[in-house]
Amino acid sequence: MRSQLLAFLICALSQNLLAQSSLTAPGAYAEQVATATRRFLENDVLKTANVGLAVVDVKTGQVIESYRGSQSVVPASILKLSTTATALAVLGSDYRFQTELCYTGEIVDGELRGDLVIVGGGDPSLGTDRPEGSLGLDSLLARWTRALRTAGIARVTGDVIG
């Protein structure tokens, strides 16, 4: 939720500034950019963030506004916003990535005589506890262990394939 809010704030800031850039005198525009930057940086979502930004006039190369503009931040990219926006538009906000545990062969006396297959669905947070609500690695492995036990599997004689 915090990342969606941050993405929204950045998009709103960008759209507002772009919409006004051709309608406003250069001095007034710089003032609007400074005000928008200050409001953006005062947002509670950014309390623990490491933020650096620079607004540059593409025609003149003049820096209009800068906040830690020369500071390196690891790794941050405006491209993440377009990726997030595209994922939300294509998949929807309720989409959840699915990772499946499957197997080949047969289960005999608690032994899987075949392979355990982990079929990934592209989950970028698999095994991490971020974003909030994601399963950390220990919780994920515990869930998978319970699923194997529920299926009657105590041992796997084949391979684990991801």
Question: Which short descriptors sum up this protein?
Answer:
single chain, three-stranded mixed beta sheet, 8 strands, elongated
Topology:
Blueprint: H1 2-21, H2 26-41, E1 53-56, E2 63-67, H3 79-91, E3 100-103, E4 106-108, E5 111-113, E6 116-119, H4 137-150, E7 155-156, E8 160-161
Parallel strand pairs: 5-7, 6-8
Antiparallel strand pairs: 1-2, 3-6, 4-5
Helix pairs in contact: 1-2
Your description of this structure?
- The chain is an alpha/beta fold.
- It contains 4 helices and 8 strands; from the N terminus they run H-H-E-E-H-E-E-E-E-H-E-E.
- It has helices spanning 2-21, 26-41, 79-91, 137-150, and strands at residues 53-56, 63-67, 100-103, 106-108, 111-113, 116-119, 155-156, 160-161.
- The chain has a 3-stranded mixed sheet, with no helix packed on it. The chain has a 3-stranded mixed sheet with strand order 4-5-7, with no helix packed on it. A two-stranded antiparallel ribbon has the order 1-2.
- A hairpin with a 6-residue loop joins strand 1 and strand 2.
- The longest helix has 20 residues, at 2-21.
- The protein is elongated, with a radius of gyration of 24 Å.
- The protein starts with a helix and ends with a strand.
- Mean pLDDT is 81; it is low at 1-9 and 15-24.
